[in-house]
Structure formats: C-alpha cells, structure tokens
Amino acid sequence: AWLISTTIAAKGLKDAGMAVYVELRKGDLPAARQALGMIVGRDTALLESPEIVRGTVETVAENIVDAIISPLFYALLGGAPLAMAYRAVNTLDSMVGNKNDKYRDLGWASARLDDVANYIPARMTALLLTLCARLLRLNWRRCWRTVRRDARLHPSPNSGYPESAVAGALGIRLGGVNIYHGVASFRAYMGDPLRSLEPEDIIITSRMMLLTSSIFVVLCAALAFIGIGG
Questions:
Q1: How would DSSP label each residue in 19-45?
Q2: Tens digit of each residue's pLDDT (9 = 90 or more) over 86-96
Q3: Domains in the chain, number
Q4: Which of 13-22, 74-83, 141-150 has the lowest mean pLDDT?
C-alpha cells in the first residue's frame, strides 16, 4: 500500500493548483505567474489572470490521468510493481519525451509508451469526470458532449479527454495559444467560452479531481475485494 501511495500525487496536484489560486486572490500576478511556471512548460512571464487560470485548470485536469487514475488502474491490475513501472514510464516521458536531439530516440519511445499506457485510463477519467459533474451539480450533459466533440482534437491522444470534460462541466474554453521558449504554439480549443475564466475555476477543478480520485479508489477497492473473495 505504501509503495502504491508513492505513485499517486493527488495532494501534490491540489497543492500546486491552490498555490496559484492563492496568489491570484491576493492580486499578486508576478507570484501567480511564478507558481504556474513551476507546473507547466509554457512561458508564464507575461500571462494575465485568465490565462494563468487556464494554464492551471489545464494542468490539474490533464494530470488527473497521469498522477492518479493511471497509477491506481495499474495497481489494480498488477499491484505495486506495475504501478511503479507506469510511474517510471510517465516520468521518463516528462523528462525526455520528444524534447531534444540528444534524447530523440529514447524520448520518442517513452512518449509513445506513455500514450499507450494512458489510453484506457484517460477515457475512464472522462467517464468519471462526467459522473463527478453530476454529483457536484455541474452541467454533466455538456461535459459529456464536449468530450465527444473536442477530446480527439487535442494533439495528445489522451490529454483531451480530461481537459474537454472539465471545460464542458465548467462552461469555459481551454486551449489556445501557448508560448514555449518564445515560440507560439496553438492548442485546439476544448469547450465553449460561455463565460470568462475565473480563479474559482481552479477550486472547482480541484474538487472534481478529488472526487474523481475518491470514486476510483472505492471502485478499485471493491474490485480487489471481489477478486480476493472469488
């Protein structure tokens, strides 16, 4: 149980999002930009409040898969060894995945393996987020419609599922232009801009993340109990 717990980062993910939220509520944009820069790869030095919120919501939503659901999924299938193997793949992808010439071959392999490993958990996460939207009295129908419409537009085969689910549930639009080392990169839009992004969207996204995690933990425990009983 302890080994499996080391592969899950729900608290760290929540804390990282809250660090940005606290600075935004204080009106300290430089500090909020710095806090966001600790968890994203994009340039944050010139971002205004809505874009800081967008970056935080996207990061929390995307990492529901990487940091929580996938490790639990593989722990259910193969215990601590498989959960830790998944974490190794995911960490390798984040470090060298397709990032430079020196690690091109290793990065390509780790990125593709990470895509395969997250394929099923990402789609499970979209379903769980839709359930969470209903339990939290958000717009769960729009959540599911947005997943079906927008998830496949994301450059990642997996990241679009949690991001589009959160965007639909909150009635906001994620995606757009990000700057990486001074170079603009456009990410497909997720959701519809029914309202402007607000700092409280970070709180709601964190609640969705925690509820999704709790539901999946209970589900995994129930399945494990049934397996042991069988």
A1: HHHHHHHHT-HHHHHHHHHTT-SS--T
A2: 988 888 766 65
A3: 1
A4: 74-83
Confidence of residue 142 (pLDDT cuts 50, 70, 90): very high
- Quick check: 91 and 66 in contact, CB under 8 A? no
Task: Report how far residue 50's alpha carbon sits from residue 68's, in angstroms, rounded to the nearest whole number.
Answer: 26
Cα–Cα distance measured from residue 89 to residue 145, given in angstroms and rounded to the nearest whole number: 31
| Other beta carbons less than 10 A from residue 26's beta carbon | 10
Phi then psi for residue 135, to 5 deg, are -65, -30
Give the Cα separation of 172 and 229 in Å (integer). Answer: 44
135 lies in which domain range? 2-229
CA–CA dist 230, 228 (Å, integer): 5
Angle at 36 between CA 172 and CA 18, to 5 degrees: 75
Q: What is the DSSP letter of 121?
A: H
Largest interatomic CA distance in the chain: 57
Helices (H), the chain: 2-5, 10-26, 29-37, 49-64, 70-96, 104-135, 140-150, 160-170, 200-229
75, 107, 135, 144, 163 from 171: Cα distances, Å: 33, 35, 16, 12, 12
Measured distance CA(170)–CA(133) in Å, rounded: 9
SS in 3 state form for 200-212? HHHHHHHHHHHHH
